[in-house]
Write a structure and sequence with these properties.
By secondary structure, the chain is α/β, with parallel strands linked by helices. The protein has helices spanning 11-23, 37-44, 60-70, 84-92, 105-118, 151-162, 170-178, 186-202, and strands at 3-7, 27-31, 48-51, 75-79, 97-100, 125-127, 131-134, 139-142, 145-148, 168-169, 207-212, 216-221.
C-alpha cells in the first residue's frame, strides 16, 4: 500500500484530505509539527508528499527545495496560492504537480495517481542539480546517458546528496566508505575524493565538491563556490 504524507497546517483540510486518501486505498502520514518538516519526511519515507505552501515557520517552497535536494520523493503542491509566478517557482524547485484549492476530489486523486505512476521503480534515486543517482547500483544518469560509478565514488556522492548543501564531516565520509573512523589514513579519503572530483569534472556536472576548512566537504553549485 502506497504511503502519502500530508503537510497541511489547517486541521480540517488535513483531516479531509487524510480521510479521502484513506478511502482511496492509501496509507497516510499527517505532518502536524512544522519544525524540521524535511527531516520528518525523510524519516517516514512516503511515496508522495502533498504539500501546502502557506505554513507556519518555514515556507512550503523551502521544504520543497530541501526535500528535492535530499531525495527523489515526489511532491504534489496543493495550495490556495493561485498566482502563476508561485506555480512556476514551485515547479522550478522540483514540485511534480501544482494544484490550487479548492480542488475537486476526482482531479486530486487523478493527479496523485499520475505522479505515483511516473515514479514507479524510482524509489532509490537521489537527485542532483542535473543528474540522478541510483543509490542501489550507483548508476549516475546525466546528459541523456548513464554511468556506473565505482563503489567508493558512488558511496561518497550518495552521502553528499543526502546532506543537500550542508557540510559533510570527514568522519561521516569515512563511515560511509569503511564503516569506521578508526585507523583510517586521511590520504585514503583524499584519494577517493580526488577520483570522484575527476569523474564529476569529466561528466561536466553542475555541482562540485569543495572543502570547508577544519570541518569537511560540501556539494555546491559551481557558481556558488567560495574559497575557504
Amino acid at each position: 500500500m502506497k504511503k502519502i504524507a500530508i503537510v497541511e497546517d489547517e486541521i480540517l483540510m488535513r483531516k479531509e484530505l487524510a480521510d479521502m486518501l484513506c478511502k482511496a486505498g492509501y496509507r497516510i502520514e499527517e505532518i502536524h509539527e512544522f519544525e524540521h518538516v524535511t527531516t520528518q519526511l525523510l524519516k517516514c519515507a512516503p511515496d508522495l508528499v502533498i504539500l501546502d505552501m502557506n505554513l507556519p515557520g518555514v515556507s512550503g517552497f523551502q521544504i520543497c527545495r530541501d526535500l528535492k535536494q535530499k531525495s527523489a520523493i515526489p511532491v504534489l503542491v496543493l495550495t490556495s496560492r493561485d498566482q502563476l509566478q508561485d506555480e512556476l517557482h514551485a515547479l522550478k524547485l522540483g514540485a511534480d504537480e501544482y494544484l490550487t484549492k479548492p480542488c475537486r476530489k476526482e482531479r486530486l486523486l487523478a493527479r496523485v495517481s499520475n505522479v505515483m505512476k511516473r515514479y514507479e521503480g524510482r524509489p532509490n534515486l537521489l537527485e542532483g542539480m542535473d543528474f540522478l543517482l541510483d543509490r542501489q547500483t550507483h548508476t549516475l544518469y546525466i546528459h541523456n546517458k548513464s554511468v556506473v560509478l565505482p563503489g567508493n565514488q558512488g558511496k561518497l556522492l550518495e552521502v553528499f546528496l543526502m546532506h543537500g548543501d550542508q557540510t559533510v564531516s570527514k568522519e561521516e565520509l569515512c563511515m560511509a566508505l569503511w564503516g569506521t573512523t578508526e585507523f583510517i589514513d586521511e590520504n585514503a579519503l583524499q584519494v577517493n575524493l580526488t577520483r570522484l572530483k575527476k569523474t564529476m569534472t569529466g561528466l561536466r556536472m553542475s555541482q562540485q565538491i569543495v572543502p570547508v576548512r577544519g570541518i569537511g566537504y560540501r556539494l555546491t553549485a559551481k557558481e556558488n563556490v567560495n574559497e575557504n
